[in-house]
Amino acid sequence: MLMAFLGDIHANLPALKEVLADAQKNKVAKIYHTGDLVGYGPYPNETVEFIKDNKIEGVLGNYDDGVAFKKPTCGCDYKTEKEHEIGTKSLTFTVKTLTYGNQELLKSLPQSIKFEVAGKKFFLFHGSPERLNEYLTPDLFPARFDKLIEDYPEIDVFVFGHTHYPFYFTHRGRHFLNPGAVGKPKTKDPRAIYALAKVEEDTLAVNFRLISYPYEITASEIRKNGLPEELARIILGEVTGG
Fold first, then answer.
1. Quick check: 4 and 23 in contact, CB under 8 A?
2. Is-cis flag, bond preceding 138, omega within 30?
3. Which of 34, 75, 116, 146 yields a CA-CA distance of 20 to 30 A from 135?
4. Residue ranges of the Calcineurin-like phosphoesterase domain (predicted)?
5. What DSSP letter does each residue of 7-32 carry, written as one string?
6. pLDDT attached to residue 84
7. Where are the domains of the chain?
């Protein structure tokens, strides 16, 4: 069975459309998202509705949580005063723009999903099972990943997002997959990225797909909506995303 995993879309509809088109071209049987549908990008309503209309199942991200429940912050790990300023403007825009119906759709997202494919048990979440905004990164290997295995010994495949960096590895017979970010890169490569996973009884093979899309359309809409210029430059690959 061929599956697609994508995440951290961040209200970037043009990127999401091209990713879905590529997944469909590859004839995937099922698509899941790891959360953060909104935030930073100019298309929060359109993105939530596109996910719903295309029946893409997924989980609540920390930004989705902050917006849907109108929290004072998105739970993001901002390091500088400038990042805080950009984040506040983005959160304010997203809360103001999102319709009540789409806010309710975000509220309805589960914090995790478990399912089974070809005898393999999957566990899908955004940051970690305990915290929406925990960063599970390879530099935490092996201790943090050992803890996941010990806490969830029945799980074969852990799928999560939040870091915006794609990676995949196996450890103690388990699989750990982060599909990266569709809508807000943290490198100067502006392309969207997602993961194709071929799941069979004896194997799981992961292929990351880098997808070009009309970046300038998203950047133009960011500027048109009065969002910070830095967000447009991140989309265009001119600066590294925070």
1. yes
2. no
3. 116
4. 1-201
5. ---TT-HHHHHHHHHHHHHTT-SEEE
6. 84
7. 2-235
